[in-house]
Amino acid sequence: MNPVSTLLTILWIYTGLFLLLLIKDIVKHRKSMEKNPITGSILISVIANFFDTLGIGSFASATSAWKLTGTNSDDLIPGTLNVAFAVPTAVEATIFIHRIEMDIPTLVLMIAASVIGASIGARLILRLNILKIRLVMGAALLAVAAITLCKINAVGPFGIIGTAKSLDGNMLLAAILGNLCLGALMPAGIGLYAPCMALILLLGMSADAAFPVMMGSCAFLMPSVGISFIKEGKYHRKSAIPMALGGTVGVLAAGLIVTALPLTLMTYLVCLIMVVCAIMFFHDAWKVRALFIKKR
User: Are the C-beta atoms of 49 and 205 separated by less than 8 Å?
Assistant: First the structure.
């Protein structure tokens, strides 16, 4: 078995165990499940996971849609996101790990670092200043997007766009430590996708290498988080499986588009995503600041 097949086999064994626990919980509580319609949530899952596969992320869009439509209660949203979107994210990871060439040791070490970082972050989350982190993240993404656009258009002193598919030495160490930090920020609601894209570009790697790294990282992270919500019963049981199926459809549709893009267009797409996510970081920081002022 080659290294890619081994990695994906481990991922799907883990995801399969997660699915068994989910199905067992749903069957156990089938008589007491929510009565509200789930069609809207399925559609939300399809759209959110479509954009997630493009690298924009699904959590913010799905949360906003639920807020607008009132189809999911606030206390169940975090759990529903992690439980219902775990399988679509595993499908994303499978597509990009299989189709985009990347050095497997580099990929595995970066994924492992994010998982370790998430376990550390879950314990330290209360010590973080979320407002400052979001502002720094937003500014950093804009800076990296600007530098990348200058590189790809040969403007200024920034050199050429990176094309590496592997890292070693100090650069590999920087990648591991960087993804560990990004994983640690996940429990704080700081998405990994856009910052991971920025990290990949800063290290001189090809823009498309970000996709297997960021999606592989989240594919291993989300079942672990989802299991906790399943055990607590803090997710929308009735819609979980239909949303997972709908989200998978969205992933497959978007995956065909992204993997067919030439590297130059992929790089422009990554820059666009970083700008969009930077705006989202600033927006979220503004909301946190407004809430803080209101409490005072």
Answer: no
